[in-house]
# Entry
Amino acid sequence: MGVTFDNVAYLHLLWLVLLLGGVYAYGFARKRRALERFASAGLLGRLMPGVSAGRQKFRAVLVLAAVAALVVALSGPRWGERKIEVFRRGLDVMVVLDVSRSMLADDCRPNRLEKARQYIRELLEVLPGDRVGLVSFAGRATLSCPLTPNYGWFRMALEEVDPRLAPRGGSNLAEAIRLAAAKLGERPGEHKAILLITDGEDQESDPDYAARYAFVDHEVRTFAIGLGDAAAGRRIPVETEEGIDFVKGEDGTEHLSKMNASLLERVARAGGDGFAVPAGTANIDMAEFYRRMLDQVQPQEHEAQQQQRYVRRYQWFAALGLLLLMLETLMTDRRPEAVVAAGRAAA
# Structure
């Protein structure tokens, strides 16, 4: 039978039981030594006939056992499986992340790609259990993480995407949007959204048409966040054997990557009248961004799923701990009167 804990770290508090036991042991030993200095063992029995050292120790044991039981209750023990039906209500959000070399430009600190990762992590913090997936793209699009409610798995996929691992250079927004729409379109309903995070550099495809196709054919709305300096632009670093160099054009001059805000706005409008936020090099509030999305994309209740859950058993330990504390409170250190009277008669 498997046993799990909701808060296993609280079990470290069991060390307090050992510490408290040591305090009790020290207190009893010190008290005994003090009494022995005051009178001999035989005289103590006559002076304190009604006091039971055994009862005192038993009360200490009750307190220690109660504390241990309450610590176990606090850790949230579970065992014994049962099937329950889980209903989930929320959105399906496919994050489409640009991992082309232009996303390494450092006009956003530390660079555009890391800023995009930061925004995505902040979004996960406000999602109320929505399913999320990840499409990464440069010259080609890749499904890096299918739709899942497992945010830990999604975070692992997010950290692994890298421009150096892209199968092809360039920036193909249209292919990425089509791939995301196809994965979202596997389930009917208007609870689906594409979140495009990019600098908007794309000279290879027609992302407006792809976003319109996603909405018309798959009921998927498109939203966008633009990163990068739209005015001056920034150089694109590239690693060479000699060190860091910068991408150059055919005439040998360094290429400056700029955010294409107008393209992102066109894509968002084509994708079901969504919206684009040209963040540029500034910070945006992802909680507010998500609230704006909810104004246009309504959550949907998905079919119930049978899940195996371990049953919570903390109540047993909490009740045991409280019972032991009550018993310790009701007990006294004195012997029963019959035992005391018999002791006096023998004396």
Remarks:
- The mean pLDDT is 85.
- The first helix runs from residue 14 to 38.
